[in-house]
Structures are given as structure tokens and as C-alpha cells.
Amino acid sequence: LKAKDRKSSGRPLVQTSSVAAWFVVPVVLAASYCLYAAVALPLFKVDKFGLMSNSWSLLEAIQQFLSRDLTLFAMIMGTFLIVAPAAMAIMSVVLLLAPMGLRGQLILGRFLTHVYEWCMLDVFLLAMVLYLTEESSFAPLNLKAGFGYLVITMVLCHVVKVLVTISIRRAMARDDKAAGA
Fold first, then answer.
1. What is the pLDDT of residues 1-54, one digit of tens each?
2. How far lies 179's CA from each of 6, 114, 119, 122, 173, in Å?
3. Strand pairing category for 52-56 and 44-48
4. Are 74 and 142 in contact (CB under 8 A)?
5. pTM for the whole thing?
6. Burial class (CB in 10 A: 0-12, 13-18, 19+), 148
């Protein structure tokens, strides 16, 4: 194939890449379900000296920030903990299934990498783990199902990013090999 033909060929990445690309869609679906569960289900329950207890989900925390006129915090939390992972999932599926040329795949792949870097699930979880290690000084924190789903979401988002990167690299290698032949 000529260089012009290779650039204009709009085959989906799943057709031009390795087996890794075929695992992305099921992993994205699992990550999306876990993200939904992490947003809707309680993450933890705080017991304040046996007198009062509250449990929070991500959605409830965002709603509390909004009700207390802390819109900036609500926007930050929503953007980096919910919107970024969801956008990453959507971009991954589009990248793999939409017919586009190699240049488009590379651009979308780079953009996906940037969104992944701004996805703050790992930072949020690290803050919760740090709190748990020091909770004896504060109110006790009892973890709920949403926390487990959040951990699984973070791991699956990382797996998606790695699989997409492998898929793009293998597609590029095959394209280079075909150009050299």
C-alpha cells in the first residue's frame, strides 16, 4: 500500500490490531458498570462518637457540596471522578470500533491518554487509604460496597488504557510492516 492509501484507509482498530483490542469492549463495559455502582452506592459510613452516622456515595457528596454552595468542589469531584472515567470509556470504544485512519486513531489515542491522566480515581482512593491509616485520630470510617466498586473501576480503567495503547502500537507496527513490504 502507498503511504496515501494507508493514511486514508478507515478501518476500525479492532480489525488492524491485535487480540488485545477485542478485550477492550468487555473491560470497558465492566468498568462502566463498576463506575455506575461506585457513584450510586455508599462508599463509606462515618460514625461520629456513636451518636450520629452518615453514609456517602459520590453522587450524595456532590449533591451535598452543591447544597452548601460549594459548586467548585462539586464540579471538580464530578469532572475528575465521574466524567473523566466515563469519557475515557466512550473514547476507548469509539477508538476501537469507529472506522478512522491511523492518524485519527493516534490523535484520539493521545487524547485518551490525557483524559486518563486527569482521571483522579487513584488520587481519591489514595486519600481514603491515608485517612483509613490515621482514622484512630478522627471519626471511624466503615467502608461500603461503593468503595470496592471504585477500586475495581480504577483498576479496569488502567487495564483499558494499557490495552488501547497495545492495540495502537500493534496497528502501527503492522502498518509500518505493510509499508515496508
1. 444 444 446 777 777 666 777 888 899 999 999 999 999 988 877 766 555 556
2. 8, 29, 36, 40, 10
3. antiparallel
4. no
5. 0.78
6. middle
